[in-house]
């Protein structure tokens, strides 16, 4: 017969100077177990809840609609095109309905809200997922014109803000959730153009919104995807826009950068998109789905390993670290003086 283990005897034999360390370890383990248990609690009555999603023609918005439809949600999908709406309806069940939506058009947003209000009735809206976005043009800041900033900010930031403000009465009625899609480039500004600016704006707006409306039972979550293979990261439009930006520069500005700079800049973009972009969009939609179904949704979700072990930790680093990394990766202009 083996001897029974006496826990109290083991504790007594622990050197006194190490007791605090074991106690701290026990508290950390207990905290992690409680956090995991709490994080996995789900809301009841999914089949009675309505979720409105923007940017559903393709990409993560399209995939999210299909997943929510399979879970039993009543999905209201905002699509930019008739084709996108038709394709989505054919791929889903009768509880998913679509409407045409352009988030840069106030009248379109108002029509979508009125349509959604008729659909949800007194139940209100459980979730608003602001997913619609665009990335281009991106490139060196000096190559941009003010219109290039406006085109991105109108979709990614102003459209998101107007959607949220317009749909807030329905969300207050349903004591629901706002899920805003930002980006790791809303934590680290690695590109010129409107994209990083817009995503920093989404982060800030979402933080302010969360602190202002939690009194009404509304929770706000931010999704921060890393680099994924979508229309946003497709090489063809990225290179087309870079050529457009380059061709509109004055001869003086083009000379200061040089043709070699332009060629190398294109090659760097190709390398980054081919090496870093993840094809598994479920990593993004898993975060969105958790934000909608968890009893205690997280404030921020990092989607993708490049986000978790790269971009997010970098966002806490001193500025000179990120500056040095980008200086190492990107080419040097022909007339550089530093």
From TrEMBL:
Record keyword Membrane present: yes
Instruction: Please provide the record's keywords in A-Z order.
Output: Membrane, Oxidoreductase, Transmembrane, Transmembrane helix
Specify the domain of life of the species encoding this protein: Eukaryota
Q: Name one GO biological process term.
A: retinoid metabolic process
Q: Does the keyword Cell wall biogenesis/degradation belong to this entry?
A: no
TM stretches of this protein: 20-37
Q: Which GO terms describe its molecular function?
A: all-trans-retinol dehydrogenase (NAD+) activity
Q: Which family does it belong to?
A: Belongs to the short-chain dehydrogenases/reductases (SDR) family.
Write the protein's name. Answer: Retinol dehydrogenase 7-like
